[in-house]
Write a structure and sequence with these properties.
alpha/beta; Rossmann fold; Arc Repressor Mutant, subunit A; 2 domains; 5-stranded parallel beta sheet; 12 helices; 5 strands; 54% helix
């Protein structure tokens, strides 16, 4: 049996879909429902469904990013979107990320059942017959989307005590999967990317001779001066003070 999950913040829709569709006719069973994205993502990781129906306009959720996360991490998972959002560009972006159907609320049963049939047919074409969905995805629009969002989040939050788990949570993928994507697309691990961003910001700040190097280290997110000094010299080849003096030609650290 193909496992189905329904994620929507309107209980009446979750209940309606769960009970109204003749799931057995399609060789499917509903294995879980959720009313928000966080709960839904956790349940997806636990249940590994083959088909997911999800509202991408729920509160406190970046719908497109969650869809991208699902399609990136679970390449063979069939995802159909339920939404009241009628913007054509939004629908195009969702379909580009690998969504099977973009269903506008209220959807009639004919549309829902047609979506189920297409999703099941797609799984059969991929020779998937009720086993675990494939968690391995080659190059894809969804994976590229996730990496772009992850790098943007790092760029915006490099000053914080940032962890891989924080970025994974914001991009709706597991830490393991995000780490693999970052390595594949950038050739660097998370720590290397974060340190690179921080050092580049520090190099910009070193152009101002009125700023103390210790304050710069703190401002770009390093917990102590020693760690900053080690990373800076490893990446740049010279110390921060030497960089300021020889590369920028300033009067040295104040």
């Amino acid at each position: 049996m193909y496992r189905v999950m329904i994620i929507d913040d309107e209980p009446i829709i979750v209940e309606g879909l769960s009970r109204s569709v003749s799931w057995e006719k399609y060789g499917c069973e509903v294995v879980g429902t959720a009313n928000d994205g966080v709960e839904g993502k956790a349940m997806i990781e636990e249940k590994c469904p083959h088909l997911v129906f999800i509202d991408i306009c729920m509160p406190e959720m970046d719908g497109l990013t969650m869809v991208a996360g699902l399609k990136s991490e679970f390449a063979d998972m069939e995802v159909s979107v339920l939404t009241g959002y009628r913007e054509f560009d939004y629908a195009q972006r969702a379909l580009h990320l690998g969504v099977t159907r973009f269903l506008l609320k209220p959807s009639n049963m004919k549309e829902i059942e047609e979506a189920v049939q297409v999703m099941v047919d797609n799984l059969k074409k991929k020779n998937i017959h009720g086993a675990e969905p494939d968690e391995e995805r080659n190059e894809s629009a969804a994976s590229s989307f996730i990496v772009k969002n992850a790098l943007a989040y790092i760029e915006e939050n490099y000053r914080e005590k940032l962890l891989l788990s924080d970025v994974a949570e914001k991009t709706y993928v597991s830490q393991w999967h995000l780490s693999k994507l970052l390595n594949r697309y950038t050739g660097q691990n998370f720590s290397e990317i974060l340190n690179s961003v921080r050092i580049n910001k520090a190099k910009e700040m070193l152009k101002d001779p009125s700023l103390r190097i210790g304050d710069i280290a703190d401002d770009v997110g390093f917990l102590d001066m020693a760690h900053f000094s080690r990373v800076f010299k490893k990446q740049v080849g010279i110390s921060a003070n030497q960089y300021r003096n020889t590369v920028l030609g300033s009067d040295g650290e104040k």
